[in-house]
Amino acid sequence: MLILILLVISYVIGSIPFGYLLARAVKDVDIRQYGSGNIGATNVVRVVGKKWGVLVFVLDFLKGYLAPLLMAFYGSRESLFVIGAAIVVVCGHNWTLFLGFKGGKGVAASLGAMLGISFVFPQVWIALLIALISWVVVFYIWHYVSLASLSASAIFCLFAFMLSIPWEIKIFSCILFLFIVVRHKSNIIKLIEHSESRF
Known about the structure:
Elements: H1 2-15, H2 18-27, H3 41-47, H4 50-74, H5 79-94, H6 107-120, H7 124-142, H8 145-162, H9 167-183, H10 185-192
Helix pairs in contact: 1-4, 1-5, 2-4, 3-4, 4-5, 4-6, 5-6, 5-9, 7-8, 8-9
């Protein structure tokens, strides 16, 4: 029962739409009606301001980071349950119950979830570090946040399968990659059409 409660808590934590709330508080605007229409940090930077976008990224990151650790310390350290909490918190961010199940793209929350898992399963550190480096390199060269995020999630998935880590984490990496691709569908189309906005 406790594990189920923690999974529900993870989803609720993930559902907190920090980008939407902060845009309302700072500029009294519905962030969904401006820029890309997304509630994530990148759109908050464009619409509300850089420091507020950074704050949203940190808060969304912490959502993802907190969920697997809550499960590990108060529920179960079994990989299946820890990863379950990580998946659920990202689902909460992507499909928040507070905004009609329409949320962000899950990059910051996914990164936080991966870091949280890496503290429970240290083997994940290598794949995570390589993914972060790939994000920086791709963004530095092309200045597309979406392309960097897609590339990093693909790299994480690839190295998760190359490393000796629990099979649940390998499946988790595939799910995260699938989430990132689905949530970036419009960005992928724009990248193909060369109409994606550089950051």
